[in-house]
Fold this protein.
Amino acid sequence: MIVSNMEELPGQRVVRHLGVVQGSTVQAKNVFRDIGASLKNLIGGELRAYTDLMNSAREEAIARMKQEAEALGANAILNVRFATSTITQGAAELLAYGTAVIVEESPE
């Protein structure tokens, strides 16, 4: 499955448009991560526990989006975007969405 944030793929042409697909996950903060993040806020630097949490959430959202596209028969998802929103204090949704398509090599 090709996943791209581009609207078109070099050397490929869209032969069928299958519609918008999405995948999301809601992640909550962890009390142990919060303790470490609080300490890190005092001295500065990257909050790696939260970086890892968001990376994991992004991977899960992409995997769910790909499952939805595969169920439609797509072999690519184009124009992929991400969005986040706060669900409640300490929990956020990460959404991945794009356009499911069937592509094939251009005859050029």
Q: What stands out?
A: The chain has a mean pLDDT of 87. DSSP finds two helices and four strands in the chain.
